[in-house]
Amino acid sequence: MIVATSNRAGSGQRPERARTRLRKGDTVFVAAGREKGKTGKILKMIAEKNRATVERVNMVKRHRKGQGVQSPGGIVEKEASMHLSNLRLVCGRCNKPTRVNIRVLEDGKRARQCHRCAELVDG
Ligand SMILES: [Zn+2]
After folding, report:
1. Domains with residue ranges and CATH for the chain
2. What CA–CA distance (Å, rounded) separates 63 from 75?
3. Contact present, 73 and 66 (Cβ < 8 Å)
């Protein structure tokens, strides 16, 4: 086994966790990239890659081979993942893409909060 001599940050025991405040099910606004301006719901988070798939955003065509009567194959469209840095949470109250603050509640729990209107994103 080859031992790396470089001491890169994040090469320790603790894997670099996504520093995102987004979650599956959130409505997000695409702020950059090919699909700029669209909004959709997060279908899947890929935290270790800092990516997410967003409903009806970044659709790609996949050419599938048929696998019997149940799945006849052909061209299927599906969402491709995109980088989290391109996504902004949409606040349910102000209905705008916003930054997310973390508020520590009285019971010590952390809640996400809209940066614009201070509405709690999740209870
Ligand atoms: Zn808001």
Report:
1. 15-66+75-90 (2.30.30.30), 93-123 (no CATH)
2. 4
3. yes
109 CA → ligand 1 middle, Å = 20
Pair of tokens at residue 51 = 């990516």
Q: How far is it, in rounded angstroms, from Cα 102 to Cα 107?
A: 14
| pTM: predicted TM-score of the whole model, two decimal places | 0.77
Amino acid of residue 70: Q
pLDDT tens for the chain, 123 residues long, are 565 555 555 555 555 554 689 999 999 999 999 999 999 999 999 999 999 999 999 999 999 888 888 888 899 999 999 999 999 999 999 999 999 999 999 999 999 999 999 999 875
- Residue type present at position 6: S
Task: Measure 94 CA to ligand 1 centroid, in angstroms.
Answer: 4
Could you tell me the distance, in angstroms and rounded to a whole number, from the CA of residue 66 to the centre of ligand 1? Answer: 46
